[in-house]
Design a protein that fits this description.
alpha/beta; two-stranded antiparallel sheet; binds 3-isopropylmalic acid; binds magnesium ion
Length: 356
């Protein structure tokens, strides 16, 4: 089979880690008889520098005409002073909206080989955790009405949170479907003691829960959820939450794995075309040094194979190769213990390819 992949390398370490993942894709393609045809498109700061805007139309068209999209990371200090509509981050929101990627899947699991990197107390870390955050990605305050106006105290700015029943229903279904294939538990996180959108969220999630008899549905307020994640992360299976809460909690969840450089993510719509990217950012401080951890992007490519192309065996092979490299004690700088030796981006990629 031939698969057309749009590559959005982006900024900072983006190009290095995407190139690593592409090498892994080509290797797995060779082994299993697939062709992955990768076409690069500009996004983020790189696009601003080249054509003056963070998300050129060419890029959107290229993604819409691809079978799936692999993204590195966008942004960096060079573009931080640009107005909001021209910032590299705007490209991320733009591509999510253009592709209708309403679901964002962010797994956060503790790798047994990396238990020591977990910042939580030994007694908490030892029980391990494996959480799938299902974040709503095209609604809420990120996409609501915003602007400036004259208020009681003079100039004021506002952003609004809005959720329709339809948007909540469809993300809730994704969460319950996901839980059915995992631990049969959905924790729905909101702020229903204050926000009207959260009250509609909670009511709607429970209506959908009725359709999934074997799946437990628990509500949790977002402030409590932030505490529970560090106190007892093992209680979570699938978390479903709004765009903004999901943004915040997924960073917290990734941090407690101790290895943000290892976490992939998938953004999906109702088609098979998705956008796959590491959870971490563009890390401008280490860009170009060849020391970035390519694993999150390699695992994102594996998620693409599994979710967009239904190539489960190929995805398994990549994930197993990563596990095997880690179990063999191989580390990149970010996950190496103090004073221990570590591999460059290219060396780690080679080691993973060797184990496919
Ligand atoms: C993320 C990022 C983005 C978001 C930013 C860069 C716009 O933090 O993907 O989590 O808030 O969604
Ligand atoms: Mg974020």
């Amino acid at each position: 089979m031939n698969y057309n992949i749009a590559l959005l390398r982006g900024d900072g370490i983006g190009p290095e880690i995407v190139d690593s993942a592409v090498r892994v894709l080509h290797a797995i393609g060779q082994k299993y008889g697939h062709s992955f045809i990768c076409t690069p498109y500009l996004i983020g700061g790189a696009a601003i520098d080249a054509v003056g805007e963070p998300l050129p139309k060419d890029t959107v068209d290229g993604c819409l005409n691809s079978d799936s999209v692999l993204l590195g990371a966008v942004g960096g200090p060079k573009w931080d002073t640009l107005p909001g509509s021209l910032r590299p981050e705007k490209a991320l929101l733009g591509i999510r909206a253009a592709l209708g990627l309403f679901t964002n899947l962010r797994p956060a699991r503790l790798y047994p080989a990396l238990k020591d990197a977990c910042p939580l107390r030994e007694s908490v870390a030892s029980s391990g955790f494996d959480i799938m955050i299902v974040r709503e990605l095209t609604g809420g305050i990120y996409f609501g009405d915003r602007g400036y106006r004259e208020g009681k105290y003079g100039e004021e700015a506002y952003d609004t949170e809005c959720y329709s029943r339809f948007e909540i229903e469809r993300i809730a279904r994704v969460a319950f479907e996901t839980a059915k294939k995992r631990g049969n538990k959905v924790t729905s996180i909101d702020k229903a003691n204050v926000l009207e959108t959260s009250r509609l969220w909670r009511r709607t999630v429970h209506e959908i829960a009725e359709e999934y008899e074997g799946v437990e549905c628990v509500d949790m307020l977002v402030d409590n959820a932030a505490m529970q994640l560090v106190k007892n992360p093992a209680q979570f299976d699938v978390i479903v939450t709004s765009n903004m809460f999901g943004d915040i909690l997924s960073d917290e969840a990734s941090q407690i794995t101790g290895s943000i450089g290892m976490l992939p993510s998938a953004s999906r719509n109702e088609t098979s075309r998705g956008l796959y990217e590491p959870i971490h950012g563009s890390a401008p401080d280490i860009a170009g040094k060849g020391i970035a951890n390519p694993i999150a992007t390699i695992l994102s490519a594996a998620m693409m194979l599994r979710h967009s192309f239904s190539l489960a065996a190929e995805a398994d092979a990549i994930e197993n190769a990563v596990d095997s490299a880690l179990n063999a004690g191989l580390r990149t700088a970010d996950i190496a213990e103090k004073g221990a030796s570590w591999l460059s981006t290219t060396e780690m990629t080679d080691e993973i390819i060797k184990r496919l």
